[in-house]
Amino acid sequence: TPRVFSGIQPSGDLHLGNYLGALKRFADAQEKGVQSIYCMVDLHAITVWQDPADLKKSTRELCAGFIASGIDPEKSILINQSQVPEHAQLAWVFNCVARMGWMGRMTQWKDKAGKNAEAASLGLFAYPALMAADILIYHATHVPVGEDQKQHLELTRDIAAKFNHDYGVDFFPLTEPVIEGAATRVMSLRDGSKKMSKSDPSPASRINLTDDADTIAKKFRKAKTDPDALPSEAEGLKDRPEARNLVNIYAALSDQSVDQVLAEVGGQQFGTFKPALAELAVSRMGPITAEMQRLMADPAEIDRILARGAEQAREITAPILKRTYEIVGMVG
Ligand code: AQP
User: Fold this and answer.
1) Mind listing the domains of the chain with CATH numbers?
2) Does the annotation flag 232 for ligand binding?
């Protein structure tokens, strides 16, 4: 049976990349009626330093972000990773299945550890094994993510295949990444070759879900572009990464294809297109921001939702962990 899992780190403010690449697509998937588990991955967040008070706040804010984006805790299971201990327990088994060489080839590890890998945490190196456990502890079959997570999902399949092979079982499924739509890779507004990211030092590089209308308009106005008018076909965006990014954002926000958008805005200068884009973004994100703020006013209710989610999740995860331990040969 199909089952969807995906997660987001509570490591800072949600941005438009997280919304279009992940949250909005989660809400669309939920409407298709497939059982879905969505997770705040706090154990992943602490692979780099997080102030404890900020981590708590970001986790609750992220939960509010999920719900405000359309994830309904009555329809989907909404959890915080550390509240479902089987994630970390299975991750240990996977640490013993995955190979150092596999981990060392991960581009996210190389990007984040940089030149000073000696000083990076062991957790940052092992991150993809925990991610594999997050997915496989549910026997999830589909994982909607942004393009940046493709390599980690291939590794998840490698871990599942090696576990099945080593123990001579057909236990963990080979999970499919679901990377589709116009905005699986939203780029920085300051540099069309870098993805929009929480950790970019420039706040002007990203639109946050908590930005007000003026800030959104200002950030789009200042977004880097070229001097040409917009083309009327997708082909014309080929060597124009910044223009392509803004058109992709417009397409994703308005649920249209890039060609449909260009049929409408082709020939426009950025002086006309950018304010229209800002207006569209505000009209789509404004209600989400307002709903997030409303939910954040009652953190106890958020905690109740997460506690109930953890209970529901453990009905799935506890038997899968138990069976894994039996396969591995643990007495218990
Ligand atoms: N720019 C993006 N475009 C499309 N999708 C994106 N995602 C992240 N950035 C983009 C998707 O959002 C989900 C959750 O991301 P995460 O919080 O686990 O990932 P992240 O990579 O830590 O997010 P950031 O903003 O890029 O943080 P830093 O700067 O710390 O690396 C995932 O599905 C991801 O694909």
Assistant:
1) 3-178+298-328 (3.40.50.620), 203-293 (1.10.240.10)
2) no
